[in-house]
Design brief:
Chains A, B: Its EC number is 1.1.1.23. Chains A, B: It holds the Pfam family Histidinol_dh. 2 copies of one chain form a homodimer. The first copy, chain A, is an alpha/beta fold. Chain A has 16 helices and 14 strands. The termini of chain A are far apart. The mean pLDDT of chain A is 95.
Chain lengths: 434, 434
C-alpha cells in the first residue's frame, strides 16, 4: 500500500507510479485465440464441443449444448427462497433504472424546411457471456441481460461454461428472472466464436457482451467488426473520498470490497483528514485478519492500494479526474460540490449510507463499468449498448433549392461528380417545372 | 451487377451471395502495424518522423510536425470564396443537428427514497484522423470535428498525412471552420500510435476517430483499450428503394454516387416496378460513359451492384433489414409505412428530393455511418462518441434499510464477504442509533 500526500514534493512521482502500476500488458493469448476462433468458424459445433470437452472436462455433443428448461427448473429449485427474493429486489430495481434510461426519438423541421431526426432501434439479437466457476456472478447476469431486455432486444443467447459439468443454480435463477431462456454450457474463446459466427446449434448474434478472462477478452477483440462488443474489462478499482466523520471500519470494508475481487484490483482512499487516514489503515489490517478472501484482498491492497492525504476536497476531485476510477464513493458531509467537480468516473456513490456494494447488487444502475482509467472515454453498460441510432432527412423541393447548391460545390471540390450530378439533375428538374 | 427477383425460386441463394460477396477478410497488416505502434510507443517523435519521412516522402522533424497557423492561413487563402460559403452552409447545418442531438442528464428519487441518475460529460481530448491524398475529404473533417466541438471536448488534435509535402487547402479550411487548431502532418498507423500513446510533441488523447486505410484501421483496433476508437469503417453501401414514379437518371446517379467511392462499394436498387428496373439499368450504363470516376464506379457496379425486383414495398423493407445498409433512400410516393418498417440502416434519406449526396455534405446528420452491415448493431458518428455517462446513487439511512439486506444476501451468496460487511456494518450502525 502506498501512502501519498499532495503536500509532499515527491507526490507527483508517487501518484504517477500509482497510475502506472497496473499498466503492464496482459498475457498475450492472441495466437491461441485466433486458432480457436478459426476452428469454430470452419467446423462449427464439432470444434465447439471439442474445445468444451477438453477445457471444461465435459462430455457435450451438439444435442446437449443447450441447457434444457428442465435443468433450469431443477437448478432454481435448489435456491433458497430468501435468495430468490433478494434476486427479485435487485432485478426490479435494475429494470426500473434502465427503463428510465431509455432515450426518446427526435424529429424536427428546420429553417430550410428540412425534416431531420434520429430514431433508436433495438438490436435483433445479443449474446451474453457469463464466466463459469468461482467468477460466476448471478448479479452480472442481471446487469447484462436486463438492459438488453428493457431495450427490446428480441433474442438473448447466453453462454456459461460449466467446468466438470457443474451448473450454478443462482446463475440460472438470475437468467430465468431476466427472461433469458436460450442458454448454452460453453465458455472461453470458443463460446465467443460460436456467438459471433454462428454454428448449426447456436445462431449468430449481433453483439456479444459480458465479462470474461483474458481468452474471452481477446476473442471479443478479434470478432469486433463481425459483431459489436462491449468494452473489454480490465482489473477494476474504487476511489473513496472520505472526511473525518466516518466509521473507519466502514471505509476499510469499502476498500476491501474492491480488493477482494482480484489481486489486480485497486482501492484508493483520498482524505483531507490524516487521523482518518491512519484509522482506516489500521482498520484494513484488522479486517484482513478475519476476511474469508483475505489472501486476494491483501495482495491487491499491498500491491495496488493507496491512501492519499489532500489539502481539501477540490484537490481530491482533481485527483479523481486523473484517475478516472470505475467506482467513486463520496463519504463526506456535503458531497454536492465534489460531485459537480468530478468529470471522469464510471459510477458515483453519494453519501455515507451508499457503499459501492449497494451498486453492485441492488442500486439500479449497472455494475458493468469502465475499468482501468477508461472512464475517461467510456461508459458503463446500459440500454445504449442494445439500441442504435438511425438518422434521417426528408427534403422538399424548396429545401433542396436552398441547400442543394452547396452540396454540388463541395462534391465537385472533392472530385465526386456522381454525387454532384445526383443533386444537380434534381435541381434542374425543379427549374424546368418552375 | 446482379439481377434478382424475389418471385424467383433462386432468389434466396442469389441474395445470400450478394450479402457475402464483400465478406472476404481484409488484407492482414497486423504484423507491420504492431511494429510501427511499438516503435512509436518506445521512441516517440523520432519513430514518428522516421515513418513519416519514409512513407510520405517527407522531411519532417519534431519541430515541423505541427502545421503552423500561418500555413493554415496561406492554404485557406487559396480556397475560392464560393467554396468557403458552401463549407459554411455545411458546417452550420452539421452544428445545428448535432446540438439538437445532445442528451439531457437524468435525476430522480424512487419509491425507496434512493436518488438515482446519470450525467453526461465530455471527453477531455480526442484525436481526429484525416486521410491524405485523394481520399482527403474536407466534408469528413467537418463531420468528425464538429460533433466533438458541440459535445464540449476541450482539445481536438488532428493528424493528416501530407504525401510529398502537399497540403490540401480545403481540408485545412474545414479544420479552421470546425475550430481545430492543433494539426500534425502525419498519417498511417504511426499517427494513430502518436495520438494513443503520446510523444514529446503530440500529447496523448482519450479517443481516436476518423476513417483511414487498412493500416489505420488495424492500428485503431490495436490501440483500443488504451484509448477509445470509433467503429472501423469497411466499404460502404447504399440501398435505393424506388417506385415507378422516378427519373431513372436520378436513381442511376444515386447508385453511382456510392459506386464512385471505391471498387468495393455496393449499390443496390430495390423496386417493385420492373420497367423502372430496366430503365435505371440503362441509365447507369449511359452515365458510366461520361462519369470522370467511371473506372471505379464500373468496377463496383459490375462486381457488387444489384437490382432486386420485389412484390411490394413491405418486402423491400424486409430485405433492407437483412442488408442493414449504411445508406437507405426511399424514393417512393408514400414513404412513411416503409420508413416505419425499416429497423436497420445507418441513415435514411426520405423522398425524391433528398438524394444521399445531400447527407454527405449539407444535410446535418453525420455522414460517418456504420458500413458493411454493421448498422445491425452500431450507429453513425454523433455527439454520443464524444461524451460518456456517469451513473450515480445517493441513499439515505431509510433507503439503506429497505434495499441493503438484499445486497447483503446476494454478496454472501457470491462469496464476497467484504461486500456484505460494508453494507451490514452500516445497517448495524443504524440499528444502534434507532
Amino acid at each position: 500500500m502506498k501512502r501519498l500526500d499532495t503536500a509532499q514534493p515527491d507526490f507527483r512521482a508517487g501518484f504517477a507510479s500509482l497510475l502506472a502500476d497496473r499498466d503492464s500488458d496482459t498475457a498475450r493469448v492472441d495466437g491461441p485465440v485466433t486458432e480457436i476462433l478459426a476452428a469454430v468458424r470452419a467446423r462449427g459445433d464439432d470444434a465447439l464441443c471439442e474445445f468444451t470437452n477438453r477445457f471444461d472436462r465435459a462430455d457435450v455433443t451438439p444435442a446437449t449444448l443447450r441447457i434444457t428448461p428442465q435443468e433450469v427448473e431443477t437448478a432454481c429449485a435448489q435456491v433458497p427462497a430468501a435468495l430468490l427474493d433478494a434476486l427479485e429486489t435487485a432485478a426490479t430495481r435494475i429494470e426500473s433504472f434502465h427503463r428510465a434510461q431509455m432515450p426518446s426519438d427526435m424529429r424536427y423541421v428546420d429553417d430550410a424546411g428540412v425534416t431531420l431526426g434520429m430514431r433508436w432501434t433495438a438490436l435483433d439479437s445479443v449474446g451474453l457471456y457469463v464466466p463459469g466457476g468461482k467468477a460466476a456472478y448471478p448479479s452480472s447476469v442481471l446487469m447484462n441481460a436486463i438492459p438488453a431486455h428493457v431495450a427490446g432486444v428480441g433474442r438473448i443467447a447466453m453462454c456459461v461454461p460449466t467446468p466438470d459439468g457443474v451448473l450454478n443454480p443462482l446463475v440460472l435463477a438470475a437468467a430465468r428472472r431476466a427472461g433469458v431462456t436460450e442458454i448454452y454450457r460453453v465458455g472461453g474463446a470458443q463460446a465467443v466464436g460460436a456467438m459471433a459466427y454462428g454454428t448449426a446449434t447456436i445462431a449468430p448474434v449481433d453483439r456479444v457482451v459480458g465479462p470474461g478472462n483474458a481468452y474471452v477478452a481477446e476473442a471479443k477483440r478479434q470478432v469486433f467488426g463481425t459483431v459489436g462488443i462491449d468494452s473489454i474489462a480490465g482489473p477494476s478499482e474504487v476511489v473513496v473520498i472520505a472526511d473525518g466523520n466516518n466509521d473507519p471500519r466502514a471505509i476499510a470494508l469499502d476498500l476491501l470490497a474492491q480488493a477482494e475481487h482480484d489481486p489486480m484490483a485497486q482501492s484508493i482512499l483520498i482524505t483531507p483528514d490524516t487521523d482518518m487516514a491512519a484509522k482506516v489503515e489500521r482498520a484494513v489490517a484488522t479486517e484482513l485478519e478475519t476476511l474469508p478472501r483475505a489472501e486476494i484482498a491483501r495482495t491487491s491492497w499491498d500491491a495496488h492500494g493507496a491512501i492519499i492525504t489532500v489539502r481539501d476536497l477540490n484537490e481530491a476531485a482533481d485527483l479523481v479526474n486523473t484517475i478516472a476510477p470505475e467506482h467513486l464513493e463520496l463519504m463526506i458531509d456535503d458531497p454536492a460540490p465534489t460531485f459537480r467537480r468530478v468529470r471522469h468516473a464510471g459510477a458515483i456513490f453519494v453519501g455515507r449510507y451508499c457503499p459501492e456494494a449497494i451498486g453492485d447488487y441492488v442500486g439500479g444502475p449497472n455494475h458493468v463499468l469502465p475499468t482501468s482509467r477508461t472512464a475517461r472515454f467510456s461508459s458503463g453498460l446500459s440500454v445504449f449498448d442494445f439500441i442504435k441510432r438511425t438518422t434521417f432527412i426528408e427534403a422538399q423541393p424548396e429545401s433542396l433549392r436552398k441547400i442543394g447548391p452547396a452540396a454540388v460545390s463541395l462534391a465537385q471540390a472533392e472530385g465526386l461528380d456522381a454525387h454532384a450530378l445526383s443533386v444537380s439533375v434534381r435541381l434542374a428538374d425543379l427549374d424546368r417545372r418552375a
